[in-house]
Write a structure and sequence with these properties.
Length: 387
């Protein structure tokens, strides 16, 4: 791709940030509160708007219900628009209620399944008010012990809740079904992998697609293979980007394994699926437990941009020629040449051309925003993770 096309593709790129990443979070052992964190959904949106203002590529923020529950979602949407951002995906929560000890939509108790499904339907009402396209579903459902419940019945219960929810979606709305290998269930999770999510999405219809959370796989899983497969099948709807060293670590994307992120983004570029018009939501799903939150989110956005720029720089003609010729070493070298390119000057230039500061993190530190929120906000809320 010639440089000007690379720049155009990078200019068009969109990354969605999650409301919960701006709030206090921690592990099961301790939450370390930070001064200045948001106390309300409005303040989370204001922080997301700041990230967009400095990066120019993060114009939407995902909400989580009930963590971002408000009385008037239309007013919240108008508030976001005034700050220059949109409300993105609506994330549901059927994992933080006493009732869900044995599962939500797969619970053996029909009354609890009803309550969980009603929450999913309520989230669609919220989407109607916010104009959100995507309903993001992640289920903590599963079992800890062999024999605890019937694995197959649980799939039937899941299918029926998903069907009811899917049928309630408007024509412009989509369902994103996220999978996760384990945690909090340790023996058998009801949506443990991309294959399970894919099979349910196929059964549901074309507006149901898979969400890949990069932290939700077994060590060594080839995530770019999953990306390529789902793109070919037209069933990749979204990413929850983050980094993992061990399990669902939710660290900054591109921190643990920037090469993996590059390989993922190469499959996106290979499928011409980067442009927002293709329909993939590139979201972050992270928790900044010990590092400053807004700069960490800016860094994450920049990490995705850098991996994308490198993926765009792959000489696809040369790669194809080497592949066709069976030239293993040359094909690998073409890919590595792009990966080993320092794209930071290119991205700095792009920002300057767009009227942005070439160094968004330095710009944040100079902006006075952190001092302002520390002075104005007392007693920030916890995102909901790690009590
Ligand atoms: C949980 O492990 C999943 O990654 C969820 O996507 C996510 O963290 C949650 O939906 C936030 O609400
Ligand atoms: Zn996730
Ligand atoms: Zn997760």
């Amino acid at each position: 791709m010639i440089a000007v096309d690379v720049k155009a593709a990078l200019r068009a790129q969109r990354i969605e940030t999650p409301s919960w990443a701006y709030a206090n979070s921690g592990t099961r052992f301790k939450v370390f509160p930070q001064p200045g964190v948001p106390r309300t959904p409005e303040e989370k949106i204001a922080d997301a708007a700041m990230v967009h203002k400095l990066t120019g590529v993060a114009p939407s923020v995902a909400l989580h219900i009930p963590w971002d529950k408000v009385d008037d979602y239309a007013a919240l949407t108008a508030y976001a628009r005034d700050l220059g951002v949109e409300i993105g995906a609506i994330n549901t929560n059927v994992f933080q209620d006493e009732d869900y000890k044995l599962g939500s939509v797969t619970n053996p108790d029909a009354g609890i399944r009803r309550k969980a499904t009603d929450h999913l339907l309520e989230a669609i009402d919220i989407m109607d008010a916010t104009g959100s396209r995507d309903l993001k579903l992640w289920f903590s459902d599963g079992i800890n012990y062999p024999g605890q419940d019937d694995i197959r019945d649980r799939q039937d219960r899941l299918a029926s809740a998903l069907r009811e929810t899917y049928d309630r979606l408007g024509l412009q709305q989509r369902m994103l079904l996220e999978y996760k290998l384990f945690e909090p269930a340790f023996y058998a999770t009801d949506v443990p992998d991309w294959g399970t999510s894919y099979a349910h999405c196929i059964e549901l219809g074309e507006r149901a697609t898979v969400c890949i959370d990069t932290g939700h796989h077994a060590p060594g899983t080839n995530i770019e293979f999953i990306v390529a497969f789902l793109l070919r099948a037209g069933k990749l709807g979204a990413f929850d980007f983050n980094s993992r060293f061990y399990a669902d670590d939710d660290l900054m994307v591109g921190a643990a394994d920037p090469f993996q992120l590059f390989r993922i983004m190469y499959e996106i570029v290979r499928a011409d699926a980067l442009d927002p018009s293709y329909g993939i939501a590139f979201m972050l799903d992270q928790c900044h437990n010990i590092e400053a939150k807004i700069p960490a989110i800016i860094r994450s956005v920049m990490n995705v941009q850098e991996a994308t720029a490198k993926a765009l720089l792959v000489d696809r003609n040369a790669l194809r020629a080497a592949q066709q010729a069976g030239n293993v070493l040359e094909a690998n070298a073409v890919l590595m040449d792009a990966y080993n390119t320092d794209v930071r000057p290119l991205l700095a230039e792009l920002r300057t051309e767009a009227g942005l500061d070439p160094d968004p993190i330095a710009a944040y530190h100079r902006s006075g925003y952190q001092e302002k929120i520390v002075a104005e906000r007392a007693g920030g809320t916890q995102a909901g993770w790690g009590a």
